[in-house]
Amino acid sequence: MNHRIAFHTTGGTEVLDWVEAPLLPPGPGEARVRNTAIGVNFIDVYHRSGLYPLPLPSGLGLEAAGVVEALGPGTSGLAVGQRVAHVDGPVGAYAEARNHPAARLVPLPDTVSDEAAAALIFKGLTTHMLVRRVWRPVPEAWVLVHAAAGGVGLILTRWLAMEGARVIGVVSTPEKAEAVKAEGAQAVIILPRGGSYPDLVPQVRDLTGGSGVRVAFDSVGRESLEASLDCLGPFGLLVSFGQASGTPPAVEISTLGRRGSLALQRPSVMHHVAAAEDLQAAALDVFEAHARGILPAHIHARLPLREAARAHQLLESRATQGSLVLIP
Ligand SMILES: NC(=O)c1ccc[n+]([C@@H]2O[C@H](COP(=O)([O-])OP(=O)(O)OC[C@H]3O[C@@H](n4cnc5c(N)ncnc54)[C@H](OP(=O)(O)O)[C@@H]3O)[C@@H](O)[C@H]2O)c1
Hints:
The protein has two domains: 3-120 and 270-327, Medium-chain alcohol dehydrogenases, catalytic domain (Quinone Oxidoreductase, Chain A, domain 1), CATH 3.90.180; 139-266, NAD(P)-binding Rossmann-like Domain (Rossmann fold, 3-Layer(aba) Sandwich), CATH 3.40.50.720. It is α/β, with parallel strands linked by helices. Helix content is 30%, strand content 26%. The protein has helices at residues 42-49, 114-134, 151-162, 174-182, 200-207, 225-231, 253-258, 269-272, 276-291, 308-316; strands at 3-7, 17-20, 30-40, 58-59, 64-71, 83-86, 97-101, 106-107, 142-145, 166-171, 187-190, 213-218, 232-240, 263-265, 299-304, 323-327.
């Protein structure tokens, strides 16, 4: 019998159940994929907790790698036995196998393992969006990266640094600071749990010779957003792309002018890869960078799929560096 992780009510990790999930033959335009490695992302926590509401009961997860097991009518360009990955809905990647829209599957090259794909593709595409569509790195420009040792954070730090930007990473522990330095950050600020985000501002001003950063990449949200705005120099860009600490506060538009003609953007990778050609092209860039050794998959831990609740506990308690992968 096929199994998946499902939840019938939103809440803490205790709402996650291991349930039987009968497999129907793939419908028109669908492929059945047997998952071999499943990526855990912070958005899964938002779905489980109800911060991003889903119709219930629901499966969980948006990212997995696996092997095509069967093809429904009307699919093209895929073969049974082919290795593939995916990064979007319908939600339900925490499953041993499931049917998925074939047009949203990305073929995996031999140079990328299933585990690396599951660790990299969602977070890599997010980073690709940030550095290719939101802001192209400018050599010598100072940028601030929150949660710099996280799944997205390590990849983003590496990519920005590789292209010459001067990254100031923010992390909660000395161990995480070492990991971020190893990815090329110019400086790392340690803000322990319970620390005060406004304390970042003078440190960032000091590091940048008073000028502030060109861009602040903020995935922490509620606790950090105001400080991120205060860390920007004139004409700076605040990229609010996540909310690990809760929903970000509202920003009054006129304050952007007063603080120095600032810009604010809230990008979502789902919009940026909505077109199939954009998805395939961005995935190819990420996989090529991985194959050339410049974008490693940082796997913090592999856990059995059944233990998805433990993975969420690790992620929410800020105990991870890099990505978590679930193995069916
Ligand atoms: N917009 C998009 O399209 C998009 C796509 C993918 C991901 N994201 C966002 O990118 C962010 C990173 O995702 P990820 O899956 O790679 O997670 P992650 O960064 O591995 O984990 C979140 C990190 O945030 C930091 N953090 C600060 N305050 C926290 C709090 N109150 N609770 C929990 N964590 C806190 C922690 O690092 P420290 O302990 O070092 O502070 C923690 O390790 C998330 O906010 C996610 O929503 C956005």
